[in-house]
Amino acid sequence: MRERTLIYLFSLIVSTVIFADELKNIHPQFPLLDDKGVNILESKLPFSEDKTCGSCHDVKFIKENSTHKDTDATCITCHTPKGELKFSEDSFDSFGNLKKEFIEISAPTTKNCVGCHSIYSSKNIPLLIPHDFSDEDRYKLSRETGAIFSPQKIKDSAYNLKGKESLATPWDVHASKELSCNSCHYPHNSLTQNRVDSNLKHLKNDPRKGRIGEFLLRPNHNLKTSTCTDCHDPLKTHDFLPYKERHFQILSCESCHVPHVYSPALQLKDSTLLQKNMNIIEYYRGVQYSSNSTEKNMNAVYQEGYTPFLLVDNKKVKPVNIVTEYFWSDSDKKITSDDLGKAIFENGKYKKEFISLFDLNKNGTIEKNELKIDSESKKNYVVNELKKIGFKSPILISKQEAFAVNHQILRGEFAQKECGACHGTKGRFSNELTLTTFKAPIDKFETPSQLLGLVSKSGDKISYKNGLKDIYVHGFSRNIFVNALGPLIIILTLFGVLGHATIRFLTRKKRPHHHVKIKKVFLYPFYERVWHWLMAGGVILLLITGMAIHFTEKDFIIPIHIVVVIHNTLAIIVVINAIFALFYYMVTREIKQFLPPVKSFITEMIAQIKYYGSGIFKGAPHPLEKTPQRKLNPLQQMTYLAVLNILIPTQVITGIMIWGAGLWPEFSEKIGGLTYIIPIHRLVACLFIAYIVIHVYMTTTGHTLTAEIKSMFTGYADIEEHEEEQLN
Among residues 149, 162, 207, 507, which one has the fewest Cβ atoms lying within 10 Å of its Cβ? Predict the structure, then answer.
């Protein structure tokens, strides 16, 4: 084998020199051999690829290590321009070798790949849906996901597509940049690609190459599937995204760069009945069918395409198309179309009983929209017919399969950049995907693990709705407990404040008017006032921007990514302000203002509660007088201690965790991830709202409604003189 390879290399060099002007045909000449290794010119037998190609290449190794080993693809299919090798008796030279002009062996091109995988058209020929689009062995990617790999602009295609004239983007940006399929799907031991040895994990790219002889002898046909990050570094761009690291941990690039697929994709494969031509019945997403639409006239029907469904699989969001298949099974074996045809056809036509049952409009013709098992009577009829031909207990099965959408990539300006498209309550994560076009009396559901628990079988119709159990999406995800408790706390607080204020208003005329002497006392130095208003303004704006992030919608007044920057900036300001305040209160020893007296605390607490509970309605004086040495009553002291030592630290810590989830995902996951961290952050925010409501209301309990507010601007407070002070 090694000698043959050396001969091949020598021939390759010689051929390259001789035919320098025809470099496209650098493959050396070779004979066509039959399955016994004899030249077909002698044996007159069909040539064998195994023997012909195997004279230089390790065919056994290639077949065992090939992505296409379970398909009908051959060497000729992929390594000739049209997937075929044409020759005649005049195609050979006097040595029995195929003449140079008949040899068109080359590396696979895009045209080789699209023949089986995708619809394709050059820039100049308007793209059409092929007439054989329904052939299960062709256009696999296009049928499963709607993928089109073409440099042509969508508006120049022949598709009957909604809004086509405004779609000035190519079908795929990589195709428009003249990349070929093998730019991303190449052999693992390719000589033209940097590769990483599995044992050298410290290297991202290994500049060392294999030997050309080794590669030509044993090219590994297990083709690599490149990811976007193999060529692109998204962290060097996407500056508009907040938390870039977190986005790229969770989101696949295709989630935003394939916002919509403009070509039909399979929705339902109904193998429970057959059309007149013995083909199964298929329904495609984004196609408006008439009563008798078939796949052959799909260029004529109106198309809208579809929005890929964002599936969370292994904590990674990726766009998919979910295809459902209905089929008959007996003893865990799928009943073939041939057997089904024997059950419902007779002499090449539908049986009379079949026509009687399925011909709903009684026109003597079974149209496509009538070929549905949507009732028990239709199901029982087919089951009985299958039993007549030997099946014991046929059952109707529904099976789903999710196909990743990795093609039809749009460049940046056409990608999804609207944050609310995912983060809003009505965004893509809230979309419910209908998997079937009609209700069927299903006996058994075969749902893959990635969809378990998320497939809704309402009646017999199947739909899919994202549960997002593994990730938390700002603006969309909700925690039932926090959703109920947080608003309940705010509502109860508002009712309490309104109730208290109402009683004060109703008893205002009944309260005796005490002529209390008021004195002005300087209580709040300049720094304390600055700290107070900076903290108050920062917290209020944090609550507003936080609610904007949580309740993101597309039509929000400020783009969400700007709101996130504002929210984080305000958080930093508030934290710095709190640190400086702590330093100030410690140095000046004013920290004692927040510490209630141990001995008289309970007595004073009871007196303060009685005042707010009844005394304030009777016009009683405040039980405790404010002084520069003691500015807060026991209730205020306890509240501030809770705010400063519980609410603010909790909010700061959870905020840092949310911000750092992209940088330290392992740490975040150890405590449950954002699914637990964000609800705690939200619940504390609700407590802050309740505190602000109470705090603002309590400022109205001075001798005038605005006296307390004014003191925080001027520093001077109006203090009631108690009787003993007035006597002095």
Answer: 207
CA atoms within 13 A on the CB side of 488: 6
327: how many CB neighbours lie within 10 A of its CB? 20
Confidence band for 459, pLDDT divided at 50, 70 and 90 = low
Q: Measured in whole angstroms, how far is the alpha carbon of residue 498 from the centre of its chain?
A: 44
**DSSP-based three-state secondary structure for 341:** helix
DSSP secondary structure letters along 400-434: EEEEE---SPPPGGGS---THHHHSTTSGGGPEEE
Q: At residue 400, what are phi and psi to the nearest 5 degrees?
A: -115, 150
Backbone torsions φ then ψ of 600, nearest 5 degrees: -100, 5
C-alpha neighbours within 13 Å on the C-beta side of residue 294: 15
Cβ proximity of 442 and 328 under 8 Å: no
CB 186 within 8 A of CB 179: no
Give 271-296 pLDDT, tens digit per residue. Answer: 999 998 888 988 899 888 664 544 45
Task: Work out the number of other CB atoms within 10 angstroms of the CB of residue 454.
Answer: 17
The alpha-carbon radius of gyration of the chain (Å, integer) is: 38
Please give the pLDDT value at position 21: 42
Q: Cα–Cα–Cα angle for 39, 94, 79, nearest 5°?
A: 55
Could you give the domains of the chain? 2-106 (no CATH), 266-465 (no CATH), 480-506+526-704 (1.20.950.20)
Residue 458 pLDDT: 62
| Helix, strand counts (H, E) of the chain | 26, 16
The region that residue 715 occupies, defined by phi over 0 for left and psi between -120 and 50 for alpha, beta otherwise, is: left
Q: Tens digit of pLDDT for each residue in 154-203?
A: 999 988 898 889 899 999 999 998 888 888 888 878 777 655 555 656 65
Q: In whole angstroms, what is the distance from residue 125 CA to residue 111 CA?
A: 14
- Containing 528, the helix (H) or strand (E) segment is helix 526-550
pLDDT category at 18 given cuts 50, 70, 90 is very low
First to last CA, the chain: 118
Q: Is 116 helix (H, G, I), strand (E, B) or coil?
A: helix
- The model's confidence at residue 16, banded by pLDDT at 50, 70 and 90, is very low
Structure tokens at 279: 């083909």
Closest C-alpha to 650, from 541, 575, 593, 540: 575
pLDDT band at 22 (very low <50, low <70, confident <90, very high): very low
Residues 100, 101, 107, 112, CA torsion sign: negative
pLDDT at 728 over 50: no
Q: Which residues have a Cβ under 8 Å from the Cβ of 313 and sit 6 or more positions away?
A: 402, 450
What is the model's pLDDT at position 599? 84
Q: What is the mean pLDDT of residues 534-558?
A: 84
Distance between CA atoms of residues 233 and 36, nearest Å: 52
Q: Which is it for strands 395-404 and 444-446: parallel, antiparallel or unpaired?
A: parallel
Q: Are 15 and 222 in contact (CB under 8 A)?
A: no
* Contacts of 446 by beta carbon, 8 Å cutoff, 6+ apart: 397, 398, 399, 400
Tell me how far apart the alpha carbons of residues 489 and 692 are, in angstroms, rounded to a whole number: 12
Band (493; pLDDT cuts 50, 70, 90): very high
Please give the average per-residue pLDDT across 541-570, as a whole number. 84
Burial 576-595 (b: 16+ CB within 10 A, else e): ebbeebeeebeeeebeebbe
> Is the pLDDT at 726 greater than 50, yes or no?
no
